[in-house]
């Protein structure tokens, strides 16, 4: 099973890196870009567990390790079943 | 005065470990030993120092991987029993990731790595790490970090203030606190923070780099001297 986890700063937390990317895009003339939030992508390969078990451990490891729940949020999706 | 035993933790990527060791052992004349991150033994030290650096290359988040090391589980237990723990710079980040101190670090507000002398104002002189200083005293100590922009949700900030947990704030040389003096953008200009129990402190400035006049400031030494006189 392949799982993709997205970690990014919470909406309530200022993201200066995203802001800088936005400013750069504006400089290049892409004035329609209203906001940019930067984050991290993790792709995990899992074996020997069911989808149900994955649903349990993915939020667990995201909260414990991959994201810092004080400043970050996460979302995830299964890319490949099996 | 009884001699104390300090333990300086080494993670892969620590780079202020020897400076801290030197400040404690040679400048302050205290028994000092290194503690390796893979060990489980705190070697009966009286105070644990987590030095600055870039543990595990700052992978994932600054300090996050170090917080999972075997030794840090011992340090956590030591701290929960009341043992004195001081985290400097990356050590502060490790303490936040470990949950021994509230909040988290964000990238500096100007997105620059800041390596410069700053002034910090003593806000709380009733802690084991600051009692030799005076409230309102200004200390000139250098910083060197990328992620030192302290953040905590509003309710946590309120709790920190209510409990008088802010030990140092970034200020200018005159002791005024404003946006300009808050070099990295920290909430409440926090430069040093202590836990509620009063035995675990994290600070971004490097006192070991301001521990003797040869280094152009010895104003950081008061932090080590506070610990020594508290425990000795």
Give me some keywords for this one:
heterodimer, A: 82 residues, alpha+beta, Mth169, Chain: A, 3 strands, elongated, B: 232 residues, alpha/beta, Rossmann fold, 9-stranded mixed β-sheet, 22% helix
Binned strand content of chain A:
25-35%
The CATH topology name of chain A reads: Mth169, Chain: A
Q: What share of residues of chain A is helical?
A: 25-40%
Structural class of chain A: alpha+beta
Q: What is the CATH H-level superfamily of chain B?
A: Class I glutamine amidotransferase (GATase) domain
Structural class label of chain B: alpha/beta
- What assembly state would you assign to the polypeptide chains in this entry? heterodimer
Overall mean pLDDT of chain B stands at 96
- CATH top level of chain B is Alpha Beta
Taking all residues together, what is the mean pLDDT of chain A? 95
- What is the chain-wise order of helices and strands of chain B? EHEEHEHEEEEHEEEH
* Bulk shape of chain A: elongated
Largest interface, with counts of residues having CB < 8 Å to the other chain, equals: A-B, 12 and 15 residues
- CATH architecture descriptor text of chain A: 2-Layer Sandwich
**What is the correct CATH architecture of chain B?**
3-Layer(aba) Sandwich
Radius of gyration of chain A: 16 Å
User: Could you describe the largest sheet of chain A, including whether it forms a barrel?
Assistant: 3 strands, antiparallel
């Amino acid at each position: 099973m392949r799982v993709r986890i997205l970690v990014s700063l919470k909406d309530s937390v200022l993201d200066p890196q995203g802001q800088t990317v936005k400013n750069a895009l504006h400089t290049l003339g892409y004035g329609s870009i209203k906001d940019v939030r930067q984050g991290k992508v993790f792709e995990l390969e899992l074996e020997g567990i069911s989808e149900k078990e994955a649903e349990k451990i993915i939020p667990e490891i995201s909260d414990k390790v991959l994201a810092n729940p004080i400043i970050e949020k996460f979302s995830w999706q299964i890319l490949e079943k099996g | 005065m009884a001699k104390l035993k300090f333990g300086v933790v080494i993670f892969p990527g620590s780079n202020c470990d020897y400076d801290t060791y030197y400040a404690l052992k040679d400048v302050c004349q205290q028994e000092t030993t290194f503690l390796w991150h893979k060990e489980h033994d705190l070697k009966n030290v009286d105070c644990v120092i987590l030095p600055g650096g870039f543990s595990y290359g700052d992978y994932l988040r600054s300090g996050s991987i170090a917080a999972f090391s075997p030794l840090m589980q011992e340090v956590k237990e030591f701290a929960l029993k009341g043992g004195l723990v001081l985290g400097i710079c990356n050590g502060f980040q490790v303490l936040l990731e470990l949950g021994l101190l509230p909040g988290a670090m964000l990238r500096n507000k100007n997105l620059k790595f800041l390596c410069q002398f700053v002034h910090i104002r003593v806000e709380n002189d009733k802690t084991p790490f600051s009692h030799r200083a005076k409230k309102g005293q200004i200390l000139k100590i250098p910083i060197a970090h990328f992620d030192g922009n302290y953040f905590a949700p509003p309710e946590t900030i309120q709790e920190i203030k209510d409990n008088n947990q802010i030990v140092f704030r970034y200020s200018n040389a005159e002791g005024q606190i404003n946006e300009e003096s808050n070099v990295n953008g920290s909430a409440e200009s926090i430069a040093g923070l202590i836990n509620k129990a009063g035995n675990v402190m994290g600070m971004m400035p490097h006192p070991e780099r301001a521990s003797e006049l040869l280094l152009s400031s010895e104003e950081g030494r008061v932090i080590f001297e506070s610990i020594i006189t508290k425990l000795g």
